[in-house]
């Protein structure tokens, strides 16, 4: 019989093998998130292997682990790329509010209603990025003055809401929006995306905390693995540059399309 403390930490639910899988998944997710986003595709399924865990507990614990990784990669990018905080910080604050709002909407409206639209959008992104190899090679801002900040905040609000509502691929959506709609190079876009993604994770956590859904022990262990992966991923992305980030981005978007497309098929036709 497990004690209340063991249940709250989540360690009482784990065997040694499951914990090892979760830690490896957390490291890999941190690396992917740091380079281009989409680490939740690895981390969340690993959490669902925990015996007796509910989907809400998995989502909440995933956000707790992720915020450690995105914070680490944000700091690493900031020290090496020096992204423009005048754009990143307002965008992050708006995204935090959007993520909280998206989590609230998710309790009223099922995320599966939006998944077909998301799959279509991802296909468009994949085709756009594949056919335009020079996109994201250099920063050439598309907007100036107030318009620049308004576009940044609209992107933050929409993608923040998506993160709270559905979640997978938030970092990838941020990167492609910053590259295609604002004109940033991939490295600069990834640096800003990490700051905004950190805020969206925080917004979702603010929603989950009062509900007692977090498995604290598992989440903190996952966070440590995420930090290690995030640090390595950010350093590799900065060292290898825009071309490396672009190819990882294309791979992650392709996996997202397959994953969400399969979800749509299962929910509507299986």
From TrEMBL:
InterPro entries named in the record:
TM_pro_TauE-like (IPR002781), TSUP (IPR052017)
**Keywords in alphabetical order:** Cell membrane, Membrane, Transmembrane, Transmembrane helix, Transport
Question: Is Disulfide bond given among the entry's keywords?
Answer: no
Membrane topology term? Multi-pass membrane protein
Family, per the entry? Belongs to the 4-toluene sulfonate uptake permease (TSUP) (TC 2.A.102) family.
Which PANTHER family does this one have? Answer: MEMBRANE TRANSPORTER PROTEIN YFCA-RELATED (PTHR30269:SF0), TRANSMEMBRANE PROTEIN YFCA (PTHR30269)
This protein's name: Probable membrane transporter protein
